[in-house]
Amino acid sequence: MLSRSLLVLSRSSPILSQAFRRFISNTSLSTAEVFVQPIPSDPGIACLFLNRPQSKNAISINMLQEFQECLETVKFDKSIRALVVRSTSMGSFCAGADLIERRTMTDTQINKFLVGLRSTLGELESLPIPTIAAIDGPALGGGLELSFACDLRVAGHDVTKIGLPETRLGIIPGAGGTQRAVRLLGMSKAKDLIFTARMLTAVEALEWGVVDYVSTAPLTAFDRALQLARDIVKNAPLALRAAKQALSRATDLPLESGLDFEKASYDLLLTTKDRTEALEAFKAKRPPVFRGE
């Protein structure tokens, strides 16, 4: 169960979705399977918690719905400049779809779930702010696909199970894994990872390019992800959003069209207050104070 101080903080937080407010007003914070929580010591950084410890955060129908609601909250909250996706329990990240629940679902329910999961990961990927997956435990199947929808991935130094085991279960990655793996790793490595259903350790995942960082003992993946998020939120919020938007279009557009899009994104920043503040701070040799304006 989460701490009482976390529960009290959650009740006063302005960034919580209506669904989550309903959860904490009726029961306790620990009953929410997904929730958003700001980090009081680090303004601008929030965590999206996965909270099904009994199933290693396997994605259920209810969990998927709460995930969607939390993403809607984050999308429209300009006070959040970086988001870390993590587990409430150490030694865990996300074990993929809830296969126990899956056995009780009809074909129609399964199809609806897969469409919803694909859509939700698309929403995560398209958030206008930088996102980081803090992988402090197994990231399997849909769990690894979830991390692929984040901008950056950090694995804990002691994590030993990172992979896409679907072909061993008679299926294929169905929430974007085949497509995002190719874009992230290249065709050959994506084929190798999916065809063999191999499990990677954190160090192997770093070598493959599946993750971007591995924590050093005794730091956890979340510790390292938080360091990374702090480096990110020092920078101008509008510039971060524009950079993510331009980078996200790079693989979709021909080079000249991409350069035009970059130029248009750049031009919009020239008249912002943050741009003026950056120049004044540089001249005065002081840290800038960005307000997202």
UniProtKB/TrEMBL annotation:
- One function term, GO molecular function aspect: hydro-lyase activity
InterPro entries xrefs: ClpP/crotonase-like_dom_sf, Enoyl-CoA_hydra/iso, Enoyl-CoA_hydra_C
The keyword Repeat is annotated on this UniProt entry: no
Give me any GO biological process, just one.
fatty acid beta-oxidation
Q: Does the keyword Transmembrane helix apply?
A: no
Q: Signal peptide: which range, if any?
A: none
Q: Mind naming one GO cellular-component term on file for this protein?
A: mitochondrion
- Swiss-Prot/TrEMBL keywords: Lyase
Provide the family line: Belongs to the enoyl-CoA hydratase/isomerase family.
Q: What is this protein called?
A: Enoyl-CoA hydratase
Native organism is Paxillus rubicundulus Ve08.2h10
